[in-house]
């Protein structure tokens, strides 16, 4: 929707509906936005439509497909549908003139089965020298391509080593569906690198990494 600035009281705008509370994967989540603007009424004559200044953003484990928005000119409301791909907690932002309306961001809990694990994990490609070997007290790198930016939020990476060892792991999101992973182990030995998508191991995960002093 347009981000045109409109002179209207943001306190008149509200959003309600089950799609702002909970939902299920692969099922449209619906909610309505009421603006207090009534097209065609005398009280709103000459007034710019506040719906032109509404905007939406959704954050969570997956990037939903395009939002479906439709205006209802009988009461000046907007019908909104969004469809999550992965289960988990999401935030739905509803803004007017760039400012959050009352209640935004809305916290939404999504349940149900994610896309079939095989479909998700089979897209993931992992490369880098750090996938098989590492060096003590140095940053070792692994590169991950999720194959789909929309599901990148479902990626998780962890590493486990010998009993008294630890390895600082950092994930850098390139915002294009790819990640750079670095880990810095403090002791030599065999480590296990876990790469999961929506809580399911990708093929060959966990990876065995042999860490040496040099």
From TrEMBL:
Domain of life of the organism encoding this protein: Eukaryota
Entry keyword set: Repeat
Any GO MF annotation of the entry: actin filament binding
InterPro entries per record: Filamin, Filamin/ABP280_repeat-like, Filamin/ABP280_rpt, Ig-like_fold, Ig_E-set
Residues in Filamin repeats: 5-110, 116-211
Gene Ontology terms describing biological process: actin cytoskeleton organization
Family note: Belongs to the filamin family.
Protein name in UniProt: Cheerio / Filamin-A/C-like protein
Native source species: Leptotrombidium deliense
């Amino acid at each position: 929707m347009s981000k045109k600035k409109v002179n209207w009281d943001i306190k008149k705008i509200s959003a309600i509906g089950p799609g702002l509370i909970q939902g299920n994967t692969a099922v449209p989540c619906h909610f309505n936005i009421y603006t207090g603007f009534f097209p065609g009424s005398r009280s709103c004559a000459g007034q710019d439509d506040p719906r032109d200044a509404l905007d939406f953003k959704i954050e969570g484990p997956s990037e939903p497909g395009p939002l479906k928005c439709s205006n209802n000119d009988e009461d000046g409301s907007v019908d909104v549908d969004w469809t999550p791909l992965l289960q988990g907690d999401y935030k739905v932002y509803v803004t007017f003139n760039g400012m959050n309306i009352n209640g935004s961001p809305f916290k939404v809990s999504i349940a149900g089965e994610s896309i079939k694990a095989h479909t998700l994990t089979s897209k993931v490609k992992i490369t880098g020298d750090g996938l098989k070997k590492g060096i003590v007290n140095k940053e070792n790198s692994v590169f991950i391509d999720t194959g789909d930016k929309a599901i990148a939020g479902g990626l998780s990476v962890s590493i486990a080593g010998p009993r008294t060892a630890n390895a600082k792991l950092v994930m850098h999101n390139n915002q294009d569906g790819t990640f750079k992973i670095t880990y810095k182990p403090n002791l030599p030995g065999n480590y296990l690198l876990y790469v999961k998508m929506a809580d399911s191991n990708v093929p060959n995960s966990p990876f065995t990494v042999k860490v040496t002093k040099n």
